[in-house]
Amino acid sequence: MEPSERADRPVGINDVAARAGVSAGTVSNVLNRPERVSEATRIRVERAIEELDYVRNSSGRNLRSGRSDSVGLVVLDVTNPFFTEVAQGVEDVAAEDGLAVVLLNSAERRDRQRRSARLLAEQRAAGAVVMPVDGDTEDLLWLRKQGVCGVLLDRGDVGPETACSVSVDNRAGGAAAARHLIGLGHERVTFLSGPEGLEQCRTRLQGLREGLAEVGIDPESAVRVVHTAQLNAESGEKAVEEVLAGGPGRRPTAVFCANDQLALGVLKGLGERGLSAPADLSVVGYDDVATASLVHPGLTTVAQPKYELGCSAMRLLLSELNDPGHRHERLRFTPELVVRGSTAVNRG
Amino acid sequence: MEPSERADRPVGINDVAARAGVSAGTVSNVLNRPERVSEATRIRVERAIEELDYVRNSSGRNLRSGRSDSVGLVVLDVTNPFFTEVAQGVEDVAAEDGLAVVLLNSAERRDRQRRSARLLAEQRAAGAVVMPVDGDTEDLLWLRKQGVCGVLLDRGDVGPETACSVSVDNRAGGAAAARHLIGLGHERVTFLSGPEGLEQCRTRLQGLREGLAEVGIDPESAVRVVHTAQLNAESGEKAVEEVLAGGPGRRPTAVFCANDQLALGVLKGLGERGLSAPADLSVVGYDDVATASLVHPGLTTVAQPKYELGCSAMRLLLSELNDPGHRHERLRFTPELVVRGSTAVNRG
DNA sequence: CCCCGTGATTGACACGTTTCAATACCCGCT
DNA sequence: AGCGGGTATTGAAACGTGTCAATCACGGGG
Fold this sequence. Notes:
2 copies of one chain form a homodimer.
Chain A: H1 13-20, H2 24-32, H3 39-52, H4 58-65, E1 70-75, H5 81-96, E2 100-105, H6 110-122, E3 127-130, H7 138-145, E4 149-153, E5 165-168, H8 170-183, E6 189-193, H9 199-214, H10 219-222, E7 223-227, H11 233-244, H12 247-250, E8 254-257, H13 260-272, E9 282-287, E10 300-303, H14 306-322, E11 330-333, E12 336-338
Parallel strand pairs in A: 1-2, 1-3, 3-4, 4-5, 5-11, 6-7, 6-8, 8-9, 9-10
Antiparallel strand pairs in A: 10-12
Helix pairs in contact in A: 1-2, 1-3, 5-14, 6-7, 8-9, 11-13
Chain B binds a DNA duplex (30 and 30 nucleotides) through residues 12-14, 22-26, 28-29, 31-32, 36-38, 41, 56-66.
């Protein structure tokens, strides 16, 4: 139709310039600093852009500026609703600034985390929000050395002189669960943990113990710890047997799970054995994922501000990117206990 | 420490070349076609790369090649477990080929879908897997015109001469649900749909009707349709009232939900009214998300091969990218009914 | 001793954009 | 008419990489 339609070479800024009868620099100005160009030419250029269906090539732009306009989000498990809500927050805030979010999934594996970091470095990403596998912040530090500023999210620790970080007070969460259970008269509780060595699990356990100690209960004898292979429902279901074990006298009256997924698994496992919460066992989870309110009985759980976590992490990142007087910040949220039906007064 | 450590200008291919005493072209060859370079120099270059901690700049590479090495995945809702499982599949397959996945969230909004498309075009993404909002394939076509080859996933339709597509046979899914309910003696069923006009909902409903007609039941009188504002649990919960409405004689004995989220909401809503499935109402969902097996009673649902959906979409995309003799393909899965506790024989 | 073939390496250019110093233009004032 | 000052536009130079024709080094064969 249009005789000026060239071969299949994509249309570039020069084609637009030619069509509008101006230089490439002017087109660039129209795109980036419209105030510097007269209205007449601006309109002419805009029409040319429209007519040619020009879309700018960000490779060129990034090459020139040495910086890309996308940020990375390295997440531990895309299928875990906790992380996707965080991602939602990150993305919404990033969108306000026109930044694209590259979602990388480390699947809890160090090698994949490393690959993700390399990738972001190669892209010269503007920044990255990373939830390190297992508290391993090495890749984050490497990224920063490469000039990609990174914010630490929810796990691990680097000094506040090194990078921003946002986290939730896991100790307080554990203590809140403890106080709730004590208030209901529970004195023997099992902590259902994830794989050994996970920092967040350890800290939640620590909070639980401290909460018990506060009221004079000896944590050593009152809490027993059971480890699972993974932080998912299947593991929780399988662990029910072991949670309940220990002889009738020593059978716990409550279980505090490191994770909602685990807790949901426990609820299911109880049902399969003809038992139920809270009659046979009070169950407390952690995270407050959407499903927690859908099961019956509803899951009592320690709620984390997931969406806000993502938002604030991204805001800190934006501040570091745009604000020249930026000082690293260490943001810390306090979780809140949400009481639903899975816990009740101990009638043991 | 190293006196050769330059200013904070990032190290480029030229720095490596200088350090190794070769030309930039040779370094590039080491990186991209190692077989063309002698072993001695290759080792020397590799050491230089190591020593300088060089990471290549993909802006330059992409600019040169006119193509980036990442693919887009445009998804309707990052927080919906259905989509995240699909994303998992896409990502796993992409990782095999060293492609990065940029996850874009259209949040069911046309404008955000358009933004995502623009972004991918600007990045000159190698390809895109897109689940169009509301069957709107316009952006996909535009992307293809821009040279970004796109695969259509799960919704909408373009002719197979235009692009590859992967979908699930929604009609068969609806029919399977119908057969199951008929087998249990249900003859009055409500279809709980999403917002009006969603193609997938319409087709599932159509399948339901056809399944009923097969055995001589008149769909017109047997099925009633209730629409909700969104395809989420909250909407399902709110819709319970309306689902149950219609007077005792006309009260349905079963409800078929367009979505597991809706179905889970219905289960919750029933509980809040002192009712329960399947005693008061048999409930069937669609998708088989992880939660479906965790609630009590377990949710009978039409299972979609979510992970495989993602894998195949990405495979088709890879084929189009790498295989010169590629022919567009239209892949179609058949869903499978998973029977759990939320449905039972009609004792009305 | 020269020529030629082969394989390794180089040098220069192209990719599409932004930036910035330099220029062209216009207007009002002396 | 000439000049100063402001604004609009241009032209050329980067940015870091991949490619490819041209060159170089090295031996073997005539």
